[in-house]
Write a structure and sequence with these properties.
The protein is of the alpha+beta class. The protein is built from 24 helices and 24 strands. The protein folds into four domains: about 190 residues, no CATH class; about 160 residues, no CATH class; about 240 residues, no CATH class; about 140 residues, no CATH class. The chain is elongated and about 100 Å long. The mean pLDDT is about 85.
């Protein structure tokens, strides 16, 4: 039967190509997403600044968080923990360097600090010159003394020049004593200060960011470090040089898992629909095989053999090209700052194996379902069964539909009753797929019902061609449903995901705008010196000015069951002082309560609740004194100063006065719109990721739509010929095909809209209190237009080709 399968494939190139395309693109996307996931898991980052040090010691960037309240657990029970990632760079005690020098075999120990700096208009990172050996840099000129710097060769500044260098909120005039050249390409430009100047400008006295260790045994160094830090060697050193990679790697894993899983589920339905349609078009052939003595087992083996041959070829091509697509997606994410550009893309054999296994499993399952019905027909009924479609509702379809509808309903209830704020998208997203898969399982029956409901308007518009199109749609509902399903998936996924994203963006921007009382902002990428605050407050027209710091904190005591591994967003403002904190009313705390927190760099601090305020659900944050929060951020200073205008003072006049007052300082002044635009741009990054990955899946379903409709229409040449011989003109046949395409598009759009509504409505009720999403109606109209155009083009073009030539010749062609 395997040889027979190979021979039949040669004669059915259209079905071969259709199945190949469906499997190939599905496996390609799953393989690419697997590469992204592997890159996130590995989080391999080439070492740059620390390349020469074989052993690097850094701060512990993770924090153990108990999953259950330790006070309620039995002392004999094993506590369960999860790791939270600290938002700020965690340093190590400078005294640790002295202990490491005493480790036997250690030949040199070098502490390293890194801080943001500006040389004129160029951005760089400042370091102490004695840490240049960690790369190592070569020097042309002299090492810097106090008031001098060594600059990166890429900056193009000559030795002897004197220029302003800004760091840690201050600007100083420094003489260039030398030029440093790195042995490899570096992501960031460097400027080297004397040890004293660097220690002052780093903003964290008594701490190193990392410590490079030369010589010595790794085990001995690890024992000397103990709990004071972490020890890294090899490629893991890059995680200490670029700690942001660790968090980005986790995000990349989630993105790839969601997108790959969604792609795999879509692939199952697309491949199943394509194989089912291909097998259904061969019913006469399969019936004849049964009539001449082919056993059910042989028939199933033949169908499975054909599917496996096509599947293996498609999977082989997808595995070769999967890393190419994965690399392109990774480059797009890096170019748009979704992942750090220093993170390395890695794709080994495992993603290819998973993609191949998932794709072939989908092919085998689809082939089994497709061949099962034909193999169960008795030989005496075979030809009759081939002529007319009969039972389509199988137990598998019914059970699948019931489970999917039950799951979609459960997720909708959970979204409305349990979820708050944007986190509701975590349950709304999967609900789209459950509703879509449930409808896909019973799509032949739903298609018949929808065609019946649309009978009167279709007949009124299209006349006799419409009546024939309606009859075709209802009689061959299984074939029609094969075309409806991918369009429904595309419409449902596109509409739901895009409007979920636009609604999230709108709510986030609204929440930010509601809380924003500032009329202007003074900002600096190197931090604002505290003296700037007093200078700004003295500007005419300024009613108030507050430092603004953002970070993440973790609540240690009392146990907070609502806290996840991402911690709580924290805001630092000048209005608060000491160790007070303002908490949201959903926090469950009262004025006077004491909280034990871990700040962004892991520093423990006890704070007292000074106020409880109402905040928008899903956007809650803790408000702390800027003087308490800022020193425990990577920058060490507040990066922004929010300014409020006095009554009667115009915002434009206020910004003008602020620019005059801060002239010569390394700051930028903007109005309220700058803050809102910056916040909106941050949301756009997340939206861009969603649009890219969802767009990739939608592109796959679009290919499947064209694939299915072209295959289904191209096989109807004999049918079209018989219609023309019975009195239809070629134009009437094409109009009939056009009406069928319109019907398919309309039914798919209605079902797709219903699946999208099953996710959008519960989400919007939670985040906006309305059943309608936020976002322009043009999005929905564009989705509809694309669906209609695809359906019509994919049907009319092959129908036009199938009706060329004489009708009598077409009727002589076998099915």
């Amino acid at each position: 039967m395997f040889k027979l399968a190979l021979r039949t494939l040669r004669q059915r190139k259209g079905a071969f190509l259709a199945t190949f395309v469906a499997v190939f693109f599905g496996a390609l996307i799953v393989s690419a997403c697997g590469g992204l996931m592997e890159s996130g898991i590995r989080s391999e980052t080439p070492v740059q600044r620390l390349a020469a040090a074989p052993i690097v010691v850094g701060g512990q960037q993770t924090l153990k968080l108990p999953k259950d309240d330790p006070a309620t657990l039995d002392p004999d029970d094993k506590h369960k923990f999860e790791n939270g990632t600290l938002a700020e760079r965690v340093g190590v005690d400078a005294a640790l360097a002295g202990r490491l020098r005493a480790v036997p075999g250690v030949t040199n120990v070098v502490g390293e600090v890194s801080f943001a700096a500006q040389i004129g208009s160029a951005s760089a990172f400042g370091h102490a010159w004695d840490s240049a050996v960690l790369t190592p840099y070569s020097l042309q000129g002299q090492a810097p003394r106090s008031g001098e710097v060594v600059v990166d060769a890429g900056l193009g500044i000559p030795v002897g020049a004197t220029l302003p260098v800004a760091a840690h909120g201050e600007v100083g005039q420094y003489r260039v004593s030398g030029i440093a050249t790195a042995p490899q390409t570096m992501r960031d430009s460097a400027v080297f200060f004397s040890t004293e100047d660097a220690g002052r400008l780093a903003g964290h006295p008594g701490e190193f960011d990392t410590i490079g260790v030369f010589g010595g045994d790794v085990a001995a160094v690890t024992a000397a470090v103990g709990d004071a830090g972490v020890v890294m060697t090899g490629t893991d050193r890059g995680l200490l040089e670029f700690p942001e990679v660790d968090k980005s790697g986790e995000n990349l894993i989630v993105l790839a898992a969601v997108s790959g899983g969604l792609s795999a589920m879509v692939m199952v339905f697309v491949v199943a629909g394509t194989l089912s349609l291909s097998t259904q078009q061969r019913q006469r052939e399969l019936a004849l095989l049964r009539a001449i003595g082919t056993t059910p087992r042989q028939l199933r083996r033949m169908v499975l053999g054909e599917a496996l041959v096509v599947g293996l070829l498609a999977v082989g091509a997808a595995i070769v090209l999967g890393p190419v697509l994965g690399r392109w997606l990774f480059d797009q994410l890096a170019a748009n700052h979704v992942v750090p550009d220093v993170l390395r893309f890695e794709q080994g054999w495992l993603p290819a194996t998973v993609a191949a296994g998932a794709s072939l499993l989908a092919v085998v399952a689809a082939a089994f379902v497709a061949g099962r019905r034909a193999s169960k027909v008795r030989p005496t009924e075979a030809l009759a069964e081939a002529a007319v479609e009969r039972r389509w509702l199988t137990p598998i379809r019914l059970v699948t539909a019931i489970l999917c509808f039950a799951g979609g309903t459960a997720l909708a209830i959970v979204t409305v009753a349990v979820m708050t704020g944007p986190v509701a998208a975590s349950t709304s997203g999967p609900a789209v797929m459950l509703w879509a898969f449930g409808l896909a399982a019973i799509s032949p029956g739903v298609t018949k019902v929808m065609a019946t409901l649309l009978r009167w308007p279709v007949q009124a518009i299209s006349g006799v061609t419409g009546r024939v199109a309606l009859l075709n749609t209802r009689v061959v509902a299984v074939r029609t449903a094969g075309a409806v399903t991918p369009i429904m998936l595309a419409v449902g996924i596109a509409t739901a995901n895009i409007y979920l994203q636009t609604t999230q963006e709108a709510v986030s921007n609204q929440a930010y705008t509601e809380d924003l009382q500032a009329d202007a902002v003074v900002a600096s990428p190197i931090g604002l010196d505290p003296s700037v605050v007093n200078r700004v407050r003295a500007v005419p027209g300024v009613a108030s000015a507050s430092e603004y710091v953002t970070s993440t904190v973790f609540v240690e005591k009392p146990f907070d069951s609502n806290q996840d591994k991402d911690g709580w967003p924290a805001i630092g403002v000048s209005e608060l002082t000491g160790t007070t904190v303002t908490v949201p009313d959903t926090f469950g705390r009262h004025v006077g309560d004491t909280l034990s927190l871990r700040l962004g760099d892991g520093t423990p601090v006890d704070v007292r609740v000074g106020a409880v305020v109402r905040q928008r659900a899903g956007f809650e944050s803790l408000v702390l004194p800027a003087g308490l929060l800022a020193p425990h951020t990577t920058l060490g200073l507040a990066p922004q100063l929010l300014v409020r205008a006095a009554p009667g003072v115009d915002a434009a006049a206020l910004t003008s006065h602020l620019r005059e007052a801060t002239a010569g300082l390394p700051v930028q002044v903007g109005d309220r719109g700058v803050l809102i635009a910056a916040h909106a741009k941050g949301n756009e990054v997340g939206a861009w990721v969603n649009y890219l990955l969802v767009g990739m899946i939608i592109a796959y379903t679009v290919i499947s739509v064209v694939n299915t409709l072209v295959m289904a229409t191209g096989k109807r040449r004999r049918e079209f010929g018989l219609q023309r011989l019975s009195g239809f003109t070629r134009g009437q046949v094409l109009r009939m095909a056009g009406v069928e395409g319109g019907l398919i598009a309309t039914i798919a759009i209605l079902l797709g809209t219903a699946t999208a509504a099953g996710a959008i409505v519960p989400f919007c009720l939670v985040v906006t209190g309305s059943v309608l999403p936020s976002g322009p109606i043009a999005i929905y109209l564009t989705v509809l237009a694309i669906a209609v155009v695809l359906a019509l083009v994919a049907i009319l073009v092959p129908a036009w080709a199938a009706t060329r030539g004489r009708a009598v010749d077409a009727t002589s062609i076998g099915e």
